[in-house]
Structure formats: structure tokens, C-alpha cells
Give the backbone structure.
Amino acid sequence: MTNIYSSFALNWRSNDLPLSDLPKKIDNNYDINIVNESPDLWPHIASSIADTNFLKVNENDLRLEVNNIGLFRASNGNNISWYKLFPQVDDKDIKTFLLGSMFGAILIQRGLLLMHGNALEKDGKTIACLGFSGSGKSTLAYALLRNGWKFLTDDLVAIDNDGFILTGIPRLKLWEDSLKAYGLKKEKLTSVRNNLNKFIYKPDDKSISKQKTKLTAFYLVNRFSTNENSSQVTIKRIIDEKIKFLYLRNNLYRPRFVRGLKKEGKIFKKLVALQKTVPVSVLNLPNKVDSLIDSIKRVDL
């Protein structure tokens, strides 16, 4: 069955796999085609400095191998191919890499500035919360939703040339400890992947922003070390331009993709231009998840 979905101001046609986390479109126009295809049909590409044992990439073509799961290809900014290594591989595992690395590769190929984090908006403010896996970005996003913010995107934060954040995939991925702290039942949610204690939370429709919004602040999310034992959220503004650039560069989505696709020069120029107008701050979160919702209310983001 073929369906067309909308995300990141683009239409994505999936020919063989439903992508239920994305909103459907009713027209037949599409920008990116997603197909189940044998890698025997993929043309040879030359090696590059960005290659690894699981990644091959050149300017317009990126190939990813995920052990015991599948092979994936993103090419020319308009095509995604995938192939299961074994028939028993769960569709859930394929979708995880399609909606993550492959969507990311396509957006980078199309020239968008892509950050690793999530974004929300409220009362004319639009914030991008960046950070490494486990830093507390999604836990923070859920706390903000509980405090009246609207959801824009998670994992992939795509910023256009005018500094607007595009609406992405309307879901949050929360670890089991966050579910327990917030009183969410994992039995009512879908796991991100088999044998992984991370679950998909879908905000209700009224909590989702339906259009792109202008970015007003970057926050670099960090957890207090255990010996600090703080129960409050704190913010430290970064003033030094070089440090701001380093922080933002380190939070690009898949920097190796950016390098291999030969987009570093253009992306770095966009970062430099953006940091001149958008403030960058470090946002320290309390160790205990259950104190986050209350403490975030007292912070002016």
C-alpha cells in the first residue's frame, strides 16, 4: 500500500511500509520516494574519508548498514531505499532508522541546517533544546508540554534559510524512568525498538504546532552531576562567539553525514549567521525527573 505523509515541509511517499507516526496527506504530490529495494540495484560509489565499517557516503549518496536489521540508502535529496537483512526483522526497527538517520540524510542533502534535539513554541518564543543522547532533552520537552508549550519536532531539528524551525515528526521518545516519574504507563505506548526500554509518546493534537516558527533561542541541555544534587533548573548564557559556534557545531545531527555529503562549508556558514541573532545558553536540569515539571515553571525561557 502506498501512502503520502507530510513532515519538514516536504511530502514523503512510502510504497511498502506505513509510517504511522507521520500525518498523512490526501494529494498525490510528493518530494521524496521511500521504497523497499534490493541493494543489488544500488550503483557503486567511491570511498570517502567519512566512510566507516557501517557507512559509505559521497556527495549525493549515503548508505548505512545496521547490524542484524537492514541496509538503507538516501540519495539525491529525493529517494530512500531500505532492505531487511532477515525476513523476521520487525518493521518497527526499520521505521526507527528511516525516520531518524535516513530522514536526516535527506534533509542534509537538501541543504537544511539540521540539529540534534527537539523544539517547542509558546507565546511567540520558539526554542531548540539540543544535547547528546541521555542529556534529558525529551524529558524536558514533556515537562514543557505539561506547562503549555506546543511541540514542533523531536530528534531532528531542521532550520530553514530564514531561521524558521520546520514542523517535524510529532512524537517524543521517552526512557522508562521518565515514564514512571510522569505517571505514564508503558503498556499504553509503543517501544521505539524491540528490546529497548524507550517508548513513543504522541502529544495530543492541540499540543502540536502546525506551522514553522521563527527560532528565538538555543538551549544546550545538561544534567547536573550527581554530587551537585540540585532540584532546580538553571540557565547560563554563553557570550563568547567561538564557544557558541563550538557548542552548536557539536550538536549538529550526524556530523559524519554532513562531512561525507560535502555540506560542512555551507552548514558552518549558516551556524555562524544564526548564532549572531539567536542567543545560546546552557540549561542545567535537576537529577530527579519528578522535580522538573515544577521547577521549569519558575524559569523564563
User: Anything to note?
Assistant: The longest strand covers residues 113-122. The mean pLDDT is 92. The CA atoms of residues 127 and 212 lie 12 Å apart.
